[in-house]
Design a protein that fits this description.
Blueprint: H1 3-12, H2 34-42, E1 49-56, E2 58-59, E3 71-72, H3 79-94, E4 102-110, H4 118-131, E5 133-144, H5 151-159, E6 164-170, H6 174-180, H7 186-199, E7 203-210, H8 217-230, E8 234-239, H9 261-277, E9 281-283, E10 287-289, H10 294-301, E11 305-307, E12 310-312, E13 317-322, E14 327-330, E15 333-337, H11 341-351, E16 355-360, H12 363-378, E17 380-382, H13 383-390, H14 394-397, H15 399-410, E18 414-417, E19 420-423, H16 431-436
Parallel strand pairs: 1-4, 1-13, 2-3, 4-5, 5-6, 6-7, 7-8
Antiparallel strand pairs: 8-10, 9-10, 11-12, 14-15, 15-16, 17-19, 18-19
Helix pairs in contact: 3-4, 3-11, 4-5, 5-7, 8-9
The structure holds iron/sulfur cluster.
Length: about 450
């Protein structure tokens, strides 16, 4: 570890967005309502496929680091009115969406989708297929919590058409697991992986988290060694976002147990080293995949895109997201559903549209989003190609961004050459900071700024 790297980390560790949307979610507003969303759904978009999402907010217990919209409960009966609401919401949307549009992607997240029992897994998938057409070769994926999971859950997922799974592993060290209230043994993970492979799921992703309490480089290397043996197709290695002012339960984590900047950097370096040695390619901010994976190919072809589910190969899809707190996205609209379970269910019962807030993008928003996305996905941006696609002179339009990038170039995070910006190897750790240079909303007065997690 070089001291220069550590200095950079300390210098650039500032609150900033992860850019899973732009404008970012704090700028969605309640002036965007049901009529706006109905209009967006009914807007013809024959060239755009659909990406369906269902949010299952229930979990058996609370992981202290959790940043998701979830409800910890042992009362399974809560799922029943929720499933009814999901069906009503889908039925209402399907009345407006062109039935010829096909879903290329379907994803269940949460919460814990496998909180649903196998019969309800079948029921929810049958609903989605009733209202929407799923392409034969669609990517159909589900987030899975290995705890409380049975073979029958996985068999129900496979039987209903799921072909991809994503398991939350996070960290296998017992002290870390204790500190975050998520206990799961190696045997358990091994067993669910064996079941998944036996059932023929074609792609398995494991999630890890860097920056958890009690994490040490030595202990995390043991987790990484285990992961190399488990040999998933993809990995997402997220940086823990400690935002107790937004997620009150994160106060259950002792701040003194969180790794300091030097340890976080060493953890990140251990991840890059270990996953690199195991043959994975680093994709942008937080994803790793095998060289033959379509995410890697998409990055090489410059067709990679970033949305609320992270990096994706499905740029030209509108996301129709169902369930409490879920965020839908069309070419020029973001819409977030009611976050509270009760309000979500009440609004669906009343109108079928549980819109809490949203945003219609201006053309400027779209241009800035494209610049941020290209930098975060392609790790480079060609001024002439960008300018001709959007009908602007890149250097004029982004003169302020180029000025803001200059100190980052001096620190070796980006190269600004004739007609092109490229992210350096060092700069990969600071993609959020680079994206922030193109973010016009961040440049408004400090008093209006939302609070984000730290970038590094
Ligand atoms: S299982 Fe996932 S969604 Fe549920 S509390 Fe844990 S991290 Fe949060």
């Amino acid at each position: 570890m070089t001291s220069t790297m550590l200095e950079l980390l300390q210098k650039y560790s500032v609150p900033g967005p992860r850019y899973t949307s732009y404008p970012t979610a704090p700028y969605f507003h309640t002036g965007f309502g049901e009529a706006d969303w109905a209009e967006a759904l009914a807007t013809p978009a024959p060239d755009r496929g659909l990406s369906l999402y269902a949010h299952i907010p229930f979990c058996d217990s609370l992981c202290y680091y959790c940043g998701c919209n979830m409800v910890a409960t042992r009362d399974y009966s809560k799922t029943q009115p929720y499933l009814v609401a999901l069906e009503q919401e889908m039925a209402r949307a399907a009345q407006l969406v062109d039935p010829k549009r096909v879903a290329r992607q379907l994803h269940w997240g949460g919460g814990t989708p496998t909180y649903l029992n196998p019969d309800d897994i079948r029921r929810l998938m049958a609903m989605m297929r009733k209202y929407f057409t799923l392409a034969d070769d669609a990517e159909v994926s589900c987030e899975v919590d290995p705890r409380e999971l049975t073979y029958e859950h996985l068999a129900a997922l496979r039987e209903t058409g799921f072909n991809r799974l994503s398991f939350g592993v996070q960290d296998m060290d017992p002290d870390v697991q204790q500190a975050v209230n998520r206990i799961q043994s190696e045997f358990l993970i091994q067993q669910v992986l064996d079941w998944s492979r036996e059932l023929g799921f074609s792609s398995i992703n494991l999630d890890l988290i860097v920056g958890l309490p009690k994490q040490t480089v030595e202990s995390f290397k043991r987790t990484l060694d285990r992961v190399a043996v488990w040999a998933p197709d993809r990995l997402a290695v997220f940086a823990y976002a400690h935002v107790p002012w937004m997620k009150k339960h994160q106060n259950l984590i002792q701040e003194a147990d969180l790794p300091d900047s030097a340890t976080r950097l060493a953890l990140q370096e251990a991840v890059n080293e270990s996953l690199g040695a195991a043959g994975y390619v680093n994709i942008g901010l937080d994803h790793f995949a095998r060289p033959e994976d379509e995410l890697v190919r998409a990055q090489q072809n410059k067709t990679l895109w970033r949305n609320f589910q992270g990096y994706t190969t499905h740029k030209n899809c509108d996301i129709l997201a169902f369930g409490a707190s879920s965020i839908s996205q069309t070419a020029d609209v973001y819409m977030q559903n009611e976050k509270s379970l009760k309000r979500y269910q009440d609004r669906v019962a009343a109108t079928g549209f549980p819109v809490e807030r949203g945003l219609k993008l201006t053309r400027d928003d779209q241009i800035q989003r494209e610049a941020i996305t290209r930098v975060m996905c392609d790790l480079e941006l060609d001024f002439a190609a960008f300018g001709s696609e959007w009908g602007v002179s890149f250097t004029d339009y982004f003169a302020d961004a180029l000025t803001d990038l200059r100190p980052l170039a001096e620190d070796g995070l980006v190269r600004i050459e004739a007609g092109k910006i490229s992210v350096t190897q060092t700069g990969r750790l600071f993609l959020r900071n680079i994206g922030m240079c193109f973010d016009r909303y961040l440049k408004q007065s400090a008093s209006d700024k939302p609070r984000y997690s730290r970038t590094a």
